[in-house]
Design goal:
CATH class of the largest domain: Alpha Beta
Number of domains: 2
Distance between the termini: 42 Å
Largest sheet: 6 strands, mixed
Strand content: 25-35%
Structural class: alpha+beta
Strand order of the largest sheet: 13-14-15-12-6-16
Number of helices: 9
CATH superfamily of the largest domain: Probable tRNA modification gtpase trme, domain 1
Shape: globular
Helix content: 10-25%
CATH topology of the largest domain: Gyrase A, domain 2
Radius of gyration: 20 Å
CATH architecture of the largest domain: 2-Layer Sandwich
């Protein structure tokens, strides 16, 4: 296994293509991933907001759970209610500890009556395997996320099914003679899809996407995009020391289900109310904000930022945090950056809404 900066890492099947394009490679979740290409994170971010980009997200896990008991295993373990969907659909859900902390946030692709692909974050695949059983098929496939207001228009030049797949729906399609599976999901706040392809054909699909004018983008832009969209990131807004309800994600709880892991803890938290709540803030300067920065309300420290950065669209510092007070939009706060406090304001989320489809 190769190493980067002394850290052992895995490489996606498209590693050589990223290097050939001049990408800056960094370790992330146990993988060596493109942070940005020579265009830079700012340009890649704005290209996604205004046109279409492709991210290699093959570092995300895929755990195949199949068999007559597959539905029951997922339904009794994960928080969301699979009876709300069916085969050919995808669902966002959480895996909790017995105490109600978040082990991971997950997308489930329901492929057929007895087959599910469970997609955890890169570093959490082993924990999901332990909780659900199944088979780790991550090494067999690549996942390409095509996102942006013009994503579907550009994809239609390859196969209309790529453009027509509905939000959180799954379909089969073809790219330059290669069969792929496509889902109407993503993680940027923009419209788009995720394409699964066997590794042996990944380069064919990658080159086809570039041929129709879709710009490669790296993890740097993916993070600033998800932050502008106020989408939670595992290890930041979600962790084993934080909860689904604190992140204001109660909609991923199947309250009518008889059971799921952590159910009693979640019920107790719901009864007493979350100890903290997620809120977003914007400063009046271009100073990027950073995770861990203390936030003060009326002179009293109320929590820390779980994520922070510079918003290329708003051209201001933005941040998300879990706070001991239920801070309403319009409230004035201060955020401590490098020893000095900056004025900021709580805002309604998301910070930036997705563009109209091109």
């Amino acid at each position: 296994m190769p190493s980067l900066g002394g850290v052992s890492v895995r490489r996606t099947h498209l590693f050589d293509q990223h290097v050939a394009l001049g990408a800056k490679m960094v370790p992330f979740g146990g993988w060596e991933m493109p942070l940005a290409y020579p265009t830079g994170t700012l340009e890649e971010h704005l290209a996604c907001r205004n046109d279409a980009v492709v991210f290699d997200v093959s570092h995300l896990g895929t755990v195949r759970v199949e068999g007559a008991d597959a539905f029951d295993r997922l339904q009794s373990t994960l928080t969301n209610d699979l009876t709300k969907i069916g085969p050919g659909r995808a669902q966002y859900t959480h895996l909790l500890t017995d105490g109600g902390g978040v082990v991971d946030d997950i997308i489930v692709w329901w492929l057929d009556d007895t087959t599910f692909d469970v997609m955890p974050n890169a570093s959490n695949t082993a924990g999901v395997l332990e909780a659900l059983g199944g088979e780790d098929v991550t090494p067999e496939r690549s996942i390409l996320a095509v996102q942006g207001p013009n994503a579907r228009e550009r994809l239609s030049d390859l196969d209309s099914r790529l453009a027509e797949v509905g939000r959180f729906r799954i379909d089969h399609a073809e790219v330059d003679g290669v069969e792929v599976l496509v889902a109407g999901t993503g993680y940027t706040g923009e419209d788009g899809v995720e394409i699964r392809v066997d590794n042996v054909h990944a380069q064919v699909v990658w080159e086809a996407l570039r041929r129709v004018g879709i710009l490669p983008a790296g993890l740097g832009a993916r993070d600033t995009l998800r932050l502008e969209a106020a989408l939670p990131l595992y290890g930041h807004e979600l962790s084993e020391t934080s909860t689904t309800l604190e992140a204001r994600l109660g909609w991923v709880i199947g309250w009518k289900k008889p059971t799921f892991r952590g159910r009693s803890a979640v019920d107790a938290e719901r009864e007493r109310g979350p100890a903290r709540l997620l809120a977003g803030l914007v400063t009046s300067t271009r100073q990027p904000l950073r995770e861990g920065s203390a936030v003060f309300h009326r002179g009293v420290e109320v929590g820390h930022l779980t994520s922070g950065n510079y918003s290329p669209v708003l051209e201001r510092g933005i941040g998300l945090g879990l706070f001991s007070e239920d801070l309403a939009a319009g409230e004035d706060v201060e955020v401590e950056v490098r020893g000095r406090r900056l004025d900021a304001q709580i805002v309604e989320l998301p910070f930036v809404r997705k563009a109209a489809r091109g």
